């Protein structure tokens, strides 16, 4: 049971979460609205000392969240492709066939973070996130309760990180239920870490 | 919770056994059981019935509902009904499974029963999935699920609650955005 | 022999549990165990129930020691003891996992709560949580923070620890009727979604609106 | 961009999601701390200038960027340390109070210290439960029988049971033992439950 997945607001990042840290390192096309002294070297396309007004750079989300904050407005930013009009239309047409991992891989979480910043398409994007998950939900559920069929790993590849986690939860329940049906659920077994550790040692000594 | 935990809880259900030994009342922490006299039926918790049966010291009386005719009717009702039908025991699946494993020789048509029960499980599971999908599409915040057994709940729980948690967060984000837009 | 093993009459001085039989205490323990396993946050500790149950086990074990080996009755008693020990262990283990996860937040709550609010942690759990937080804090300081620029050396662990998700969805069964529980206040501005909880009914909803009902036994998590 | 080294650390953690513990990356930790020092010193200089000439927007922006980068580095470092501690914690529950040497080798000196402190806190908590203490690392699954049948997976020589009797654990030998006596050996992969 993962009970501390996110804060209750759903918009705050979990400070210690590896996923959230990776998610917030994804980049956004940004434009500097103010000059930045001495940090020109961050822009690989020039060798100027400072960053001039109007400089375009792809900045990581963690920096955008600070610099594009309505109180500062040091930069303007644009949504990346998956959150823009064309893609929203594709998702609207049939969300369940889209490879969210390729355009994600943190499609929902990254989108939710973008919603904390003002953008003229934010409402359409917010709705798109809800609808996309709603449309994909049935498939993820049906896949996750089906015994490991050959194409399961292929299916998984098209899922965003949150969806993958859901899929794994479903698979895990299925496996423990099947174990129960075979009367194995209450047998004592060696710990997972121990087995893995032993296996690795064996592999290494071979 | 693991299926083993749900089964463990189901083992508190009472079942009738016919002992082949004599023994006075046993004062368990969970309550008194017995006395036991050869040939005289007595109600005991399932965990105890299994333990005694394993020592070949009793015959188990399957509950009334664990019967081919009754289970077949149940299956038909389940197919016919849009909703979940009421189960004869809140731990229907677990109790049946335990008895069919540990007291097979005391249950007539055990193999057929096993198949029928699996059918009922599958019918209900499919029903549950389409209900859940409706629930998610309606963006409902709440559902009433009266006749679901604990094992059924337990099997779908990790996936379902995590999905709903995710959905809720997305809806929060949406309503935050709506509020934000209207105040601009 | 029968008398020897009869421990079902419990007396525990001036406690809430004093009128209960051992079987009733066990039932309460099982209820607390289920709720704890299924709730997203740490619930109030049922120390007294745990204490009584462990004493019962101890007493029964002593009796078994004195009894004859290989006896059917003895082996059945043993099985029951194993069952109860499992529930106690699983209950405390589950609590410990949550305590480890949320320790800084739990300790912060202990500091800020009013005196009449019950503590969620037993004194032993409190001591454990304190040591744990101290150790983590120490590790952060010695491995990283003290080598950082001065203005970055401070942290408040309770602010950077992940919080229990009170919006987590749970399944519950109703024991006492409750009217007009608001299930979905946050996402719908116009009409709050209210439900009546009828005795015996089963529901699926967020934990937060029913947290108190679980604590006081009006509903239980399933 | 600043914070790239820190991200490497997090990626390293992400790659070992299966619970394994890679070697403590002393080197990268040091490099991150160095980057932080440089960022800090640069900011000190700019701050001094801004104090003299308070309308310098370009310095203010630079200070902001460095400040965010410092916080980012700090977050990544702490998350790295914390997630490793949680893995080490899990190992206490899975391997017991003595860790295999190859795992220990991957821990920093301070992590070893943390592990032994955690061990001590946990034992003293478990001793404090009930009249005689309760080992919470046992009774991990709901019991079905008092006695269980086990097969020995590797030679382990003679062991003594609680009741004083001794048994010889020889590879492939079968035993019928009280569950409570062999749970730990099963967890460690020395015995395997058959029925």
TrEMBL record, chain A:
In terms of InterPro entries, this protein maps to: GINS_A, GINS_bundle-like_dom_sf, GINS_Psf3, GINS_Psf3_sf, PSF3_N
Positions with biased composition (Basic residues): 196-206
The UniProt entry lists the main location of this chain as: nucleus
- Report residue spans for region: Disordered: 182-206
Q: Where is the GINS subunit domain?
A: 87-180
Q: What do we know about how this protein assembles, alone or with others?
A: Component of the GINS complex.
Q: What does this protein do?
A: Required for correct functioning of the GINS complex, a complex that plays an essential role in the initiation of DNA replication, and progression of DNA replication forks. GINS complex is a core component of CDC45-MCM-GINS (CMG) helicase, the molecular machine that unwinds template DNA during replication, and around which the replisome is built.
This chain's protein is named DNA replication complex GINS protein PSF3
Q: What is the lineage of its organism?
A: Eukaryota, Metazoa, Chordata, Tunicata, Ascidiacea
Automatic annotation (TrEMBL), chain B:
Report the source organism.
Clavelina lepadiformis
Q: What's this protein's family per the entry?
A: Belongs to the GINS2/PSF2 family.
Q: Which UniProt keywords apply?
A: DNA replication, Nucleus
Residue ranges of every copy of the DNA replication complex GINS protein PSF2 N-terminal domain listed in the record:
3-60
The record places domain GINS subunit at: 65-170
What is the official name of this protein in its record?
DNA replication complex GINS protein PSF2
Report the domain of life of the source organism: Eukaryota
Q: Name the SUPFAM superfamilies on file.
A: GINS helical bundle-like, PriA/YqbF domain
Q: Where in the cell is it found?
A: Nucleus
Subunit: Component of the GINS complex.
For the keyword Nucleotidyltransferase, the answer is no
UniProtKB/TrEMBL annotation, chain C:
Q: Where in the cell is it found?
A: Nucleus
Q: Which residue numbers delimit the GINS subunit domain?
A: 69-143
UniProtKB keywords: Coiled coil, DNA replication, Nucleus
- Asked whether the UniProt record includes Transmembrane helix among its keywords, one would answer no
Keyword Coiled coil tagged: yes
Q: Coiled-coil intervals in this record?
A: 43-70
InterPro entries per the UniProt record, alphabetical: GINS_A (IPR021151), GINS_bundle-like_dom_sf (IPR036224), GINS_Sld5 (IPR008591), SLD5_C (IPR031633), Sld5_GINS_A (IPR038749)
Domain spans labelled DNA replication complex GINS protein SLD5 C-terminal: 164-222
Pfam families (alphabetical): Sld5 (PF05916), SLD5_C (PF16922)
Q: What protein family is recorded?
A: Belongs to the GINS4/SLD5 family.
Q: What does the UniProt function comment say about this protein? A: The GINS complex plays an essential role in the initiation of DNA replication.
Please identify the protein, giving its name as recorded.
Answer: DNA replication complex GINS protein SLD5
- Naturally occurring in which organism (per UniProt): Clavelina lepadiformis
From TrEMBL, chain D:
- Enumerate the SUPFAM superfamilies for this protein: GINS helical bundle-like
Q: Where is the DNA replication complex GINS protein PSF1 C-terminal domain?
A: 146-194
Per UniProt, subcellular location reads as:
Nucleus
- Organism superkingdom: Eukaryota
Q: Which UniProt keywords apply?
A: DNA replication, Nucleus
Q: Provide the GINS subunit domain boundaries.
A: 54-129
Pfam families from the UniProt entry: PSF1_C, Sld5
Which protein family is it in? Belongs to the GINS1/PSF1 family.
Q: How does it assemble?
A: Component of the GINS complex.
Q: What does this protein do?
A: Required for correct functioning of the GINS complex, a complex that plays an essential role in the initiation of DNA replication, and progression of DNA replication forks. GINS complex seems to bind preferentially to single-stranded DNA.
This chain belongs to the protein called DNA replication complex GINS protein PSF1
